[in-house]
Backbone:
């Protein structure tokens, strides 16, 4: 079976967005999966590019009729996020290599149903990741930082071992990380050219 879907995951601050962006710039065949959400668009976000913005009832209908393949609910935000099947299927039909940023639930689903390879980006250390998170959000409260770091430790300890590959994205080594991801994709039979 030809492979079309790649999950790139990792804790907040691990560099997954930077790796995905580098792959999108380098390979015309790569495109980013656009998910559905019930949250309202932020300034500058565009329908069908950042997310498919839906009402909660439309999202729940999507779950029932199979348009939302897998989803998660974030109680603290009162928001649903999910894999939007029409977007995924359209990208696959075009022959794209679809890059998906997913948590472990989405990664498992896409691996099982779309033969995806799953890659988890790890920091060189928890301390270096904490520095990155602090630098990105200097006004973050100690309580919020502690909560984030608890989540990071859980993802690294419990989720990371369930991915096909784990790649360390060390500070200042983004290009090396991207090269490692490209090597994995080529080894796994993805046609990047």
Residues:
């Amino acid at each position: 079976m030809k492979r079309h879907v790649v999950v790139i995951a990792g804790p907040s601050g691990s560099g997954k967005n930077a790796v995905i962006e580098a792959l999108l710039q380098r390979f015309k065949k790569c495109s980013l999966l656009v998910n559905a959400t019930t949250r309202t668009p932020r300034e500058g976000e565009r329908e069908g590019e950042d997310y498919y913005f839906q009402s909660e009832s439309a999202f729940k209908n999507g779950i029932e009729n199979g348009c939302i393949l897998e989803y998660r609910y974030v109680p603290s935000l009162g928001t649903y996020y999910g894999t939007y099947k029409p977007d995924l299927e359209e990208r696959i039909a075009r022959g794209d290599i679809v890059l998906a940023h997913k948590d472990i639930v989405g990664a498992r689903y896409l691996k099982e149903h779309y033969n995806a390879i799953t890659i988890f980006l790890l920091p060189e250390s928890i301390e270096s990741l904490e520095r990155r998170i602090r630098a990105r959000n200097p006004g973050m409260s100690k309580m919020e930082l502690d909560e984030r770091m608890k989540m990071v430790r859980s993802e690294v300890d419990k989720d990371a071992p369930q991915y096909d590959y784990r790649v360390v994205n060390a500070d200042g080594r983004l290009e090396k990380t991207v090269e490692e991801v490209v090597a994995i994709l080529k080894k796994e039979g993805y046609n990047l050219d």
Remarks:
- Helices lie at 16-26, 56-65, 85-93, 104-114, 126-136, 142-159, 174-187.
